[in-house]
What we know:
Elements: H1 10-38, H2 41-59, H3 80-84, H4 88-95
Amino acid sequence: MFNIATHMDFEGQGRAEKLSRIIITLFGTVGLVWGYIIQQFSQTVYILIAGVLLASILTIPPWPIYRKKPLNWQKPRPDSQNAQSPTDETKKKKKN
């Protein structure tokens, strides 16, 4: 009914991982500095949680920026040898 994309390409996964690491590191550093300035560790945790939530919203869903280079799969080749004659195991099973 709906055509909702549920995948990322390989390079998109790399971009998403790099972006999430940058966001979480940035928010963690800012939170640590801010928490030290006001002497409240809870503020550090809140800022870090906000960074994790932002990184999750930006990187978990398969946004179009993560689907720019899809993989082109090869078409399967017909296996002519196995398609025409059954294997030895199949022959043995048929006899029993």
